[in-house]
Design a protein that fits this description.
Elements (H helix, E strand, L loop, with lengths): L6 H15 L10 H7 L2 E5 L8 H8 L1 H4 L4 E6 L2 E6 L5 H16 L18 H15 L2 H10 L3 H8 L3 H11 L1 H10 L1
Parallel strand pairs: 1-3
Antiparallel strand pairs: 2-3
Length: 187
């Protein structure tokens, strides 16, 4: 499919702008829980609904259920509410919340989760955009370059940024951080 022209640059603008609004430097770690609060998103874990539907929540938080549900943004009037699966590891929760915040930042319009036939609403373009912006919020281009400049391992960067090793690798690769640092050092 491919992202629209200029989107990757726009995504890094959001990553920098959100850090600026939170009084962080462009390479600083960004906590998605704090960003959600700043953007006036409400957050709830699945555990908050345990008393209402205990068997369903227990399943979704279990290993097999984790593949069925990561996070969703619900709208009630002007209230934006992210419900995320706290059965996932904390770094996965961060990625899931960042993904949902990306939808919000990009002003993707809300839709019911399912259509009249019971099929899930899925917009490939909007999902691709959120799949790009979510990780960029966690690790900006500047952060990726800083990781390389500091000689951090992927695991150390994962711990520093509270992002999964998969997100760190993805952002290092797509930002071209190693090439950019090598060119700068060679100049």
């Amino acid at each position: 499919m491919g992202l629209r022209r200029g989107f990757k640059k726009e995504a890094n603008w959001y990553a920098r702008e959100m850090r600026r609004e939170l009084s962080l430097t462009p390479q600083c770690p960004l906590c998605p829980w704090k960003l959600a609060e700043h953007l006036d998103f409400r957050l709830s874990s699945l555990r908050a609904f345990e008393a209402l539907v205990p068997e369903e929540i227990a399943y979704l938080r279990s290993a097999p259920g984790q593949t069925d549900f990561s996070a969703i943004t619900l709208f009630y009037g002007s209230v934006r509410w992210i419900i995320y699966n706290d059965g996932h590891a904390r770094k996965r929760q961060a990625a899931d919340i960042a993904h949902e915040l990306a939808h919000g930042l990009l002003m993707h319009p809300p839709k019911p989760p399912f259509d009249a036939q019971g099929s899930r609403h899925y917009d490939a373009v909007k999902e691709e955009e959120a799949n790009w912006l979510g990780p960029a919020l966690l690790i900006s281009d500047e952060a990726a370059v800083w990781i390389v400049e500091e000689g951090m391992s992927v695991l150390d960067a994962s711990n520093h940024y509270a992002a999964s090793t998969q997100v760190v690798r993805m952002r290092l690769n797509v930002s071209g951080a190693a090439v950019r640092v090598a060119r700068r050092r060679a100049a």
